[in-house]
Amino acid sequence: MDLSAIDNLHRRILESQSTPLLVVDHDERLCYLNPAAEDLFAVSARRVIQVPLGELIPGDRQLHAAIRRTREGNAPVVQRDITLPHAQGELVADLFLSPMDDGSGRVIVELARRDLVARADRDARLMEQQAVLDKLLRGLAHEIKNPLGGLRGAAQLLERELPEAALREYTGVIIREADRLQALVDQILGPRGGLRRRVLNIHEVVEHVHTLVRLDLPPGVSLERDYDPSLPELLGDRDLLIQALLNVVRNAVEAVDGKGRIVLRTRAVRHVAVGGRTLRLAVRLEVEDDGPGVPEAIRDEIFFPMVTGRAEGCGLGLSIAQSAVNRHGGLVQFESAPGRTVFAIILPLEQPEEVEGEHAP
Question: What is the pLDDT of residue 121?
Fold first, then answer.
């Protein structure tokens, strides 16, 4: 039994699902994997058709027992908190098993990964918090700009009236500090106006950032590339994406502290959850470093302005990157452990709605 055994309607329904789905026959041989399952197990469905399920997911008795109960009872079965072996370690999933109603003995197995459900909830909260915080900060920054300009102007006028150079040093301090605060406010406000979308190759963006960072890279840090050359073009604001990626890469350079390895990696991902929606196809742009990792104490607020693990940092880079990617309908995610931290920029390959309006290319 192969893919042709699943009629076209069933196949379309299964392929539209964002959760991994397997179909096994009465001998527990695989007869179908949907695209989400192919991504999860890093296999092609055509290569594993008629392969025993135990070769794809070896040694899990609970899974095989649940399949038998589903078939024997001809009724759905739910098995929660099952730990399954996986190419990158282990994954914890809830299993939802259903018999197909055609009398063939085939069983549909749906794997709802607990870690991805938790991540989706966390990402949705992050995007909501980011939107509220972004609006609050922009309002606050605008309130600061006006009196700051008046303060600087008054200091300049006073400087012209002061007869002694020693006194003008004090007005100079006021002017310089006003300029510093103005630059900080401008950073918080970020680029305004609609996105200037155009068709672009994400690797051109990555190469541009690679060139910028390489120019002043410490001698003990290597910057490597691992690209998927088959990635299609996407619609995006080139300058905004360059700034977002540049902030993330500079953050990685600072994290390795003069000695380490940074990898820029691109991949296509399917059925990825971003906030409250699922992207059918997206670009995953990773920045991996082998530094000490993100401190546990700031992980929940790492994308908030003014949050940083470095005494000398201002904590705006990742916040600005998140805001820029959010405006493209995407998200910046991260996972971190000592020796391996990955910040991933997820960008949709379909064009999202632009809330703030956009300029034509």
Answer: 63
Do residue 41 and residue 12 come from a single domain?
Answer: yes
Closest by CA to 39, choosing from 93, 87, 103, 98, is 87
End-to-end CA distance of the chain: 50
State the pTM of this model: 0.61
Same domain, 137 and 239: no
Query: Of the residues 116, 142, 170, which one is the last residue of a structural domain?
Result: 116
Q: Are 266 and 350 members of one domain? A: yes
Q: Which of 189, 205, 229 is the last residue of a domain?
A: 189
Number of domains in the chain: 3
Distance (Å) of CA 272 to CA 15, 143, 252: 14, 39, 24
> Residue 356: what pLDDT?
43
- The single residue listed with the structure tokens 């509220």 is 132
Domain encompassing residue 106: 3-116
257 vs 221: CA distance, rounded Å: 9
Name 95's bridge partners: 79, 111
Question: What is the C-alpha separation between 138 and 134, in angstroms, rounded?
Answer: 6
Count the alpha carbons within 13 Å of 1 in the hemisphere toward its beta carbon.
Answer: 17
Mean pLDDT by runs of 10 across the 361 residues of the chain is 56 74 90 85 85 82 88 89 68 85 86 68 65 67 76 87 82 83 67 75 94 90 94 90 92 92 93 74 94 87 69 68 87 91 92 46 45
